[in-house]
Write a structure and sequence with these properties.
2 domains, seven-stranded antiparallel β-sheet, 12 strands
């Protein structure tokens, strides 16, 4: 997967401490109750140290999670773990995982993940993990690693058609399929055009989960869980930042965005740490705004509108964008537009004189070079 090595390089901190080798291999052992970005960061440092200290690829690497029913934080965190294992397998290393994840409607896809192929130290088919990581279609799962060289042809269109057909087999409605397909096409297309990188798409549809609603009746819900990852030296908002800061634009909408930037910098002073980085990510999500150097008149095609339309059909959702170590949550109550169709991310519907809601911003322990999306939608069975 192109640029995956940047993830390891950006997050590795040199450690002189020697990692011991036991009889069966090199162990990463954790007793954490939740697998989240903190644990992922520890994994990356461990992998970096192993690669530096042990050049032999015959020594097994064993990731051991001691806590039964360990909670997996979200889909993106285990997909990132898959990427790390993919990197190790591609260089010919033996990798095994000993864990027992908790079943959850937003992370049930971990049970159909290629990680399951690494769950036994007696497993010897070294190529199956790579194959399943790059391409896997089943009754509950769609995954494709879309190579950048193919994204410049009509391959993307054909892949989206194949994905739509697969989602239909998963039992989703035409409405949901159309919206998901548009979201994926937009995000994958951006990866190919803006940062010239591969893009990993992973979608799973869960088995029904029961939950008691009002009264004694219980309703069944399914999860539609999406992760999209593209690694690159270029962060999500960097293109539009360069265009605005160097005045390389002609359209009035970019002049207005420059004014909004100056206003926000005054409003955010001493209130939100590193706000400018968040601002450029929000700027890149705006309608008719593009970070591409020679493109002024067009831009965003309503990605947040598409996500919001899925959120409105859902009974629960957990959606965010991550680039670098900055996270922006897409809470449906804050995806609002002003009269000139600026996305405000606040309840006041004011982009120019009101900051986005602060709770939409978060910081990750892991630096993600490029852009990734985690999109979880919980829908009532029969309404999806």
């Amino acid at each position: 997967m192109k640029n995956l090595e940047i993830l390891l390089r950006k997050n590795y901190s040199f450690n002189k401490k020697r990692i011991p080798v036991s009889k069966d291999g090199i162990h990463f052992i954790t007793e954490a109750t939740e697998f989240d970005a903190v644990e992922l960061g520890k994994l990356i440092n461990f992998i970096g140290s192993v690669r530096r200290q042990y050049k032999s690829k015959q020594i097994p690497i064993i990731f051991e999670f001691k806590t039964p029913d360990i909670i997996v934080r979200d889909k993106l965190v285990y997909v990132m773990f898959e990427c790390l294992c993919y990197s190790l397998k591609k260089e010919g290393r033996k990798v095994y995982i000993l864990w027992d994840p908790k079943d959850n409607i937003t992370t049930q896809g971990v049970f159909t993940s290629p990680l399951r192929l690494l769950s036994s130290t007696s497993y010897r088919d070294e190529k199956s993990y790579i194959t399943k990581f790059e391409d896997d279609i089943s009754q509950t799962h769609y995954r494709k690693l879309m190579k950048v060289q193919n994204l410049k042809s009509n391959y993307l269109g054909r892949s989206i058609e194949d994905m739509s057909y697969s989602l239909k087999l998963l039992g989703l409605s035409e409405s949901v399929i159309d919206k998901l397909s548009e979201v994926v096409e937009e995000l994958v297309g951006n990866a190919g055009e803006h940062v010239a990188s591969d893009c990993l798409v992973d979608i799973d549809v869960t088995t029904p989960h029961s939950k008691k609603d009002e009264g004694d009746d219980s309703e069944e819900y399914i999860g539609i869980n999406v992760a999209i990852v593209s690694f690159s030296e270029t962060l999500f908002g960097e293109g539009i930042k360069e265009k605005i800061m160097t005045n390389t634009f002609k359209a009035q909408r970019y002049s207005d965005l420059s004014i909004a930037h100056d206003n926000h910098m005054v409003l955010a002073k001493d209130t939100i740490d590193d706000y400018e980085e968040y601002f450029w990510n929000i700027a890149a999500l705006q309608d008719k705004i593009s970070g591409r150097r020679n493109l002024d008149s067009t831009g965003g095609t309503g990605l947040t509108v598409l996500i919001n339309s899925l959120q409105k059909e859902a009974y629960g959702e957990y959606c965010y964008l991550m680039s670098g170590n900055k996270i922006i949550f897409f809470y449906k109550d804050y995806i609002n537009f002003d009269k000139n169709h600026w996305l405000t991310f606040n309840k006041q519907g004011n982009f120019f004189h009101q900051l986005p809601e602060e709770k939409l911003f978060s910081f990750s322990n892991v630096y993600l070079p490029g852009t990734a999306y985690n999109l979880n939608f919980v829908m009532k069975k029969g309404e999806n």
